[in-house]
UniProtKB/TrEMBL annotation:
Its main location: nucleus. Residues 66-105 form the Transposable element Tc3 transposase-like DNA-binding HTH domain. It holds the Pfam family HTH_Tnp_Tc3_1. GO terms for molecular function: DNA binding. This is Tc3 transposase DNA binding domain-containing protein. It comes from the Eukaryota. Residues 5-50 form the Tc3 transposase DNA binding domain. InterPro entries: Homeodomain-like_sf, Tc3_transposase_DNA-bd_dom, Tnp_Tc3-like_HTH, WH-like_DNA-bd_sf. The lineage of its organism: Eukaryota, Metazoa, Ecdysozoa, Nematoda, Chromadorea. It is found in: Nucleus. GO terms for cellular component: nucleus.
Length: 150
């Protein structure tokens, strides 16, 4: 069974007067028509009666908000894996916990990397030849036409 309604200010005043007169808890409950436990809760701490105390519910978080921000900052705009981030930040949590942090943030969206052709042997030699041929070229003196001609 749940808790009964809180005592009103008038009922609280009546309890205070009856307490000063030395009335028993059972008699107070009968006269005010409230439960003994409701009156006892008020009498135990009249100043804080009815004020909600924040109760932590559920399992406590493994990481605080600062650590979560560090994870997001580290992963954003980098191709690092979740295990790389765990190692870099020295986190003692599972990779699923880190993944959940990223999903909750909504900032990081997983994308496939764009595919590029493989560099075959003759591509590598062509690049090396280009570098060797143009090693002495002064590129700051070369004018490049940046307009596209169709």
């Amino acid at each position: 069974m749940g808790r009964a309604a809180l005592l009103s200010h008038a009922e609280q005043a009546k309890v205070d007067v009856m307490r000063q007169m030395g009335t028993s808890l059972h008699e107070m409950a009968r006269l005010i028509q409230k439960s003994r436990s409701a009156i006892r809760r008020y009498m135990n701490d009249p100043l804080n009666y009815g004020k909600k105390v924040k109760e932590s519910k559920g399992r406590p978080r493994k990481m605080d908000s600062r650590t979560e921000r560090n994870i997001i900052r580290t992963i954003s705009n980098s191709p690092k894996s979740i295990n790389d981030v765990r190692g870099e930040l020295n986190l003692q949590v599972s990779k699923n916990t880190v993944r959940n942090v990223l999903q909750r943030s909504g900032v990081i969206v997983q994308q496939k990397m764009t595919k590029v052709p493989r560099m075959i042997g003759h591509h590598k030699t062509a690049r090396l030849d280009f570098v060797k041929k143009n090693l002495t070229t002064k590129w700051d003196l070369v004018s490049v036409n940046r307009e596209l001609i169709f």
